[in-house]
Specification:
By secondary structure, the chain is mainly β. 13% of the residues lie in helices and 43% in strands. It is globular and about 45 Å long.
Length: 166
């Protein structure tokens, strides 16, 4: 689970908690997610396609005996498809009671920031399911980093469907 919920944002104004984010790239943009939400980062393995899977799902992998659904963040965010390369990675995260993998273009670094640096997302972004997972924006080292909570990207029904795969 993320340690960036709205309650923590309110507390951030009085305490300057240091948080760590894993930064990754999609289509040249930089995103960050709470390092505590990431179980591991792996290179691209062979992915088994699933019939009748949602269009944003690449398939499943076997990760040390655990079946893990693999989600294309590019497709989920409505971005153009692109060939995976040596920099492509899968962020394996806990969702619900199981694991889910998210394909990203590249993983950049783990950054440490003060929670006070996180600005709320622009209000114009609300209403689109892909944009509802944006929890804030950070101006970090002269670049904007979009902070995400990927647990907010899916409905409870979708998360249950992922759990059924395992």
């Amino acid at each position: 689970m993320s340690n960036l919920p709205a309650v923590k944002r309110e507390l951030a104004q009085t305490s300057h908690e240091i948080i760590q984010l894993v930064s990754f790239e999609l289509e040249g943009e930089e995103y960050g997610i709470d390092v505590l939400a990431v179980r591991e980062i792996i290179r691209m393995p062979a992915i088994t396609k699933m019939p009748n899977a949602p269009d944003y799902m690449d398939g499943i992998i076997n990760l040390r005996g655990t079946v893990v659904p693999i989600i294309s963040l590019r497709r989920r965010f409505g971005l153009m498809e692109r060939e995976q390369n040596l920099k492509s990675r899968i962020l394996v995260m806990e969702m619900g009671t199981g694991l889910t993998g998210f394909v990203v273009d590249a993983v950049a670094e783990v950054i440490r920031i003060s929670s006070a640096e996180i600005q709320p997302p622009p209000s114009a972004l609300h209403g689109n399911s892909a944009q509802d997972c944006i929890t804030g924006v950070i101006n970090h080292a002269e670049r904007l980093l979009i902070v995400l909570d990927l647990n907010l990207l899916f409905s409870n029904d979708e998360i249950s469907a992922f759990e059924d795969l395992g």
